[in-house]
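Propose amino acids for all 656 sites.
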């Protein structure tokens, strides 16, 4: 099969079903990750569905990877192991969130990240020569590779090429073979109707002499000799390919063996396969995520029971360094995967509608009644619906993988909602901030109309949720946000959000609306940043545009302090501030470049830095002294950056 313009909706639906299968598997396996089969059966002997009602699921490494590594296709013209490694540096916080930071020489991803930071480019960053075979062959090369099947556009050779590149950033050997298997199997599953054919064909794309392929074939052999007893096969795997046979914390081979077993014995049945695999133990969320992705591609939405899909509510939360991307929608990310698949083939396609996919609720919730996606619209039979723009501690189940969020709707933004109602109906919109205050507005609508919800502005105002109340059923045809942020942070009186248990068991405290990339940041009658190597904290949304920035700060120690703007990641930003005895404007596009500088020796004490974008230049004031810098856009994310060994207190930050 090949991608065609006419077949874009068909391909989108295949990708969407596969991606939902991944998310289902993660949610199913998470409560028992790392458990043995025996422990699971003792605790959950009869469970046939989700083991825990997560409601708002916080974040997971298995979904973080596919969402963000694939963005290398957005950021670079040429895709390679090196550019995917750059994506790792661009979108990850240092040493927290995203995946397991178990230490260099313990966690493959942590080890590879440290290599990348030191300038060891991929694929050397993940190679056995650099890290040793134990690090190279842990499970991570496999669990993040689904996305390369989504963007391969029915082409298993392309899926193999892309997944091998991506896996080599952090892994090698069997670790790369696992990445290839998953991506290729997804691509083939979109074009086949039997899981056994998919497995057999996918294995032909692997190195036949590698252990990964040989063990997979051994499990298939066992299945064919014992087709009616999966527990006998599980016992065979535990005895011959168990964790005790392989080094490291989570080796790829034992878990792959369980995946092949469950798919072989699962009879092309999503429920049977997933429950069997989850009951088998070991790295349950990773295994169920990969197999769910393959089965979703094979069976489509019709082959997945609604009981698995509805609890997700179209929502994916993440824990990257980009807070506005840490709240996303399953439907929207499936559209991005599809767009990238067509982009790789050089084919342009039209944008998709918001509600073109089943279950694409865009994480809208209702307090009563129901919401239903059909006919490319959201049918609302509820007196009160809302969606989160930012999460408070009580909104999330837990804080695994350290999710930090920037509000996806900000003060000054305009939220436009296209409505249809058969009869005249009054609506009340409400914006609830993180202190519980509600800002309401009333509208009267009959037939097709658009209401524009203007988000209020104010000092330290952070939007928690946006909702709509109505007395009659109605339909939503579209939702759009016009970015017009007006932001005022006074850190002399600013809240911390106390979230739940982290992956390691302690509790996570977040500086409201901000994401800590690096360094130590705390609220102590100011926003205090302490840098070892460097420190960065950020907030904001992609698509924002500013003309004015004010920063009131105190440089307590060190000689490099900057306000950050036009940030799209750690490797893509601008900053303006003091470095030594100069006021400098620096652009970072993977490497730093000084665009302009002026002598500016700071006195001790509190300082005010003001940036105004005028016609053709930036007008900058530092403590009343005026400077002119080349025109530079003030857009996207913003924040504070500190150089090596610096301590800085920020008292106030304004942007509009």
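Proposal:
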């Amino acid at each position: 099969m090949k991608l065609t313009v006419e077949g874009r909706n068909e391909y989108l639906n295949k990708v969407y079903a596969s991606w939902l299968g991944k998310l289902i598997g993660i949610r199913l396996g998470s409560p028992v990750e790392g458990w043995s089969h025996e422990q699971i059966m003792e605790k959950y002997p009869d469970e046939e569905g989700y083991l825990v009602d997560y409601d708002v699921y916080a974040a997971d490494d298995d979904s973080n990877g596919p969402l963000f590594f694939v963005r290398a296709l957005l950021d670079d013209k040429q895709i390679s192991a090196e550019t995917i490694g750059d994506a790792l540096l661009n979108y990850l916080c240092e040493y927290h969130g995203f995946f397991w930071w178990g230490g260099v020489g313990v966690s493959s991803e942590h080890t590879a990240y440290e290599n990348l930071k030191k300038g060891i480019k991929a694929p050397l960053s993940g190679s056995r020569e650099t890290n040793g075979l134990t690090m190279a062959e842990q499970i991570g090369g496999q669990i993040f590779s689904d996305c390369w099947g989504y963007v391969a556009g029915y082409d298993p050779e392309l899926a193999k090429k892309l997944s091998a590149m991506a896996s080599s950033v952090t892994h090698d050997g069997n670790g790369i073979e696992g990445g290839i298997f998953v991506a290729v199997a997804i691509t083939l599953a979109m074009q086949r109707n039997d899981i056994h054919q998919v497995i057999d064909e996918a294995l032909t794309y692997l190195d036949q002499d590698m252990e990964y392929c040989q063990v997979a074939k051994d499990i298939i052999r066992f299945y064919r000799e014992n087709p009616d007893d999966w527990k006998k096969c599980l016992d065979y795997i535990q005895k011959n390919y168990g964790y005790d046979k392989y080094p490291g914390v989570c080796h790829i081979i034992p878990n792959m063996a369980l995946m092949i077993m469950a798919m072989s014995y699962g009879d092309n049945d999503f429920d049977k396969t997933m429950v069997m695999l989850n009951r088998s133990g070991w790295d349950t969320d990773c295994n169920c995520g990969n197999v769910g992705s393959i089965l979703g591609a094979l069976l489509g939405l019709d082959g997945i029971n609604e009981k698995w899909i509805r609890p997700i509510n179209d929502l994916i939360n993440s824990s990257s360094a980009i807070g506005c991307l840490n709240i996303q929608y399953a439907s929207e990310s499936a559209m991005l995967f599809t767009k990238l698949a067509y982009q790789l083939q050089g084919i342009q396609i039209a944008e998709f509608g918001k509600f073109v996919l089943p279950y694409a609720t865009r994480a809208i919730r209702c307090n009563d009644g129901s919401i239903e996606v059909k006919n490319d619209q959201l049918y609302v039979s509820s007196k009160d619906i809302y969606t989160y723009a930012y999460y408070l501690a009580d909104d999330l189940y837990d804080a695994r993988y350290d999710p930090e969020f920037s509000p996806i709707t900000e003060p000054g933004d305009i939220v436009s909602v296209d409505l249809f109602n058969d009869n005249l109906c009054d609506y009340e919109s409400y914006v609830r901030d993180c202190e519980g205050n509600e800002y309401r507005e009333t509208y009267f609508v009959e037939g097709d109309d658009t209401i524009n919800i203007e988000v209020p502005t104010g000092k330290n105002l952070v939007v928690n949720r946006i909702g709509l109340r109505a007395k009659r059923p109605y339909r939503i045809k579209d939702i759009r946000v016009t970015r017009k942020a007006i932001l005022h942070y006074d850190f002399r009186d600013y809240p911390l959000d106390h979230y739940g248990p982290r992956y390691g068991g302690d509790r996570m405290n977040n500086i409201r609306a901000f994401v800590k990339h690096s360094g130590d940041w705390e609220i102590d009658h100011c926003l205090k940043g302490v840098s070892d190597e460097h420190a960065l904290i950020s907030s904001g949304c992609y698509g924002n545009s500013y003309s004015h920035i004010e920063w009131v700060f105190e440089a307590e120690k060190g000689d490099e302090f900057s306000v950050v703007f036009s940030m799209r990641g750690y490797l893509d930003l601008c900053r303006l501030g003091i470095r030594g005895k100069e006021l400098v404007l620096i652009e970072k596009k993977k490497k730093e470049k000084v665009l302009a500088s002026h002598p500016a020796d700071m006195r001790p004490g509190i300082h005010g830095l003001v940036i105004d974008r005028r016609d053709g230049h930036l007008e900058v004031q530092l403590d009343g002294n005026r400077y002119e810098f080349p025109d530079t856009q003030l857009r996207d994310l913003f924040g504070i950056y500190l150089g090596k060994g610096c301590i800085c207190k920020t008292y106030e930050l304004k942007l509009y």
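The first helix runs from residue 8 to 29. The two ends are 50 Å apart (CA to CA).
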